[in-house]
Design brief:
four-stranded antiparallel β-sheet; single chain; elongated; 8 strands; mainly beta
């Protein structure tokens, strides 16, 4: 199973703190690859911070949004419990932060 969602674009850098949050519907417990997608541009953040909330806690991953436009960029592989899980992205970065989309792709399931 795969799930994804698309919130809006975050505001300019160093503006008041804002966070985009995606809710993933995890059909069954198991390992999932989590990917993020954005449009790249020279004015984008090189230190966009995604926080993946998973079965073992929360992991923050830094991404360079000046490159890898229009492709799914791996944030990591995580163990999720069945139910809802979240990925968030805040706009506290050194450039514009683009909150385009998140997708999770199952690698294995616990039955």
């Amino acid at each position: 199973p795969t799930s994804w969602s698309t919130p809006s674009t975050a505001p300019p850098p160093r503006a008041a703190p804002n966070t985009a949050t995606w809710t993933l519907n995890v059909a069954s417990a198991g390992s999932y690859n989590v990917y993020a997608r954005w449009t790249a541009h020279p004015n984008r953040a090189t230190d966009a911070k995604y926080t993946v909330n998973h079965a073992a806690g929360a992991t923050t991953v830094t991404a360079n949004q000046e490159s890898n436009s229009g492709t799914w960029n791996l944030l990591g592989t995580y163990l999720f419990n069945a139910g809802n899980a979240t990925v968030s992205l805040n706009d506290q970065a050194n450039g514009y932060v683009i909150a385009d989309a998140i997708i999770d792709i199952a690698l294995s399931h616990e039955d």
